[in-house]
């Protein structure tokens, strides 16, 4: 590995964008040479990784679709609140945002008005230690309860139990989000059983 590629891969934890490389003084020709020499791998337009490491699909999706917020079962997975591995990445976008590339990916996209899309955005670490945008545990539980008719009952039950055991849970915030997302009655019943 050349010192050039090592610098980028080390600084950006194995995955970086062409823009980040430019900020470090790299030109497109240099990146192309590094790809040709198998020192870095181009995994998506403008996104490069270390070919010797496993790809962080969450980070790559975040870099490709900057307005994405991981939600639903994908968020449960990031918070270690489910045993189920999501079959696709669930991502929420502001209404009106449409990327052509979404159609060809293993992504389940949903869209909300800006006020609801922004509600509860925070960050979480992937298993590779990269920070990505995700809804808070409270918002995630509300989303799971909203979608309970199309999610396996065991996933819903396990998520609620995992949330109830979290030391950092905020029940007041949970109920604020439940009211905004119109699942207050169902949430009150679930929480009454769990706590």
Quick synopsis:
By secondary structure, this protein is an alpha+beta fold. 45% of the residues lie in helices and 17% in strands.
Layout: helices, strands, pairs:
Elements: H1 3-11, E1 15-17, H2 18-23, H3 28-36, E2 41-44, E3 47-49, H4 57-64, E4 69-70, H5 72-78, E5 89-94, E6 107-112, H6 114-118, E7 121-125, E8 131-135, H7 137-146, H8 153-165, H9 171-180, H10 184-194
Parallel strand pairs: 5-6
Antiparallel strand pairs: 1-3, 2-3, 4-5, 7-8
The tally of helices reads: 10
Mean of all residue-level pLDDT scores: 92
> What is the radius of gyration?
19 Å
Would you list the SSEs in sequence order as H and E? HEHHEEHEHEEHEEHHHH
Strand tally is 8
| Percent of residues in beta strands | 15-25%
What is the spatial order of strands in the main beta sheet? 1-3-2
Distance between the termini: 54 Å
Structural class of the helix and strand makeup? alpha+beta
Largest sheet: 3 strands, antiparallel
Helix content: 40-55%
Low-confidence stretches: none
Shape: elongated
How does this structure look, described?
By secondary structure, the protein is of the alpha+beta class. Helix content is 45%, strand content 17%. It is built from 10 helices and 8 strands. The strands form 3 sheets. A 3-stranded antiparallel beta sheet has the order 1-3-2. The chain has a 3-stranded mixed beta sheet with strand order 4-5-6. Helix 5 packs antiparallel against helix 7 (137-146), helix 7 packs antiparallel against helix 8 and helix 9 (171-180) runs antiparallel to helix 10. The longest helix is centred in the C-terminal third of the chain and has 13 residues, at 153-165. The model has no long low-confidence stretch (mean pLDDT 92).
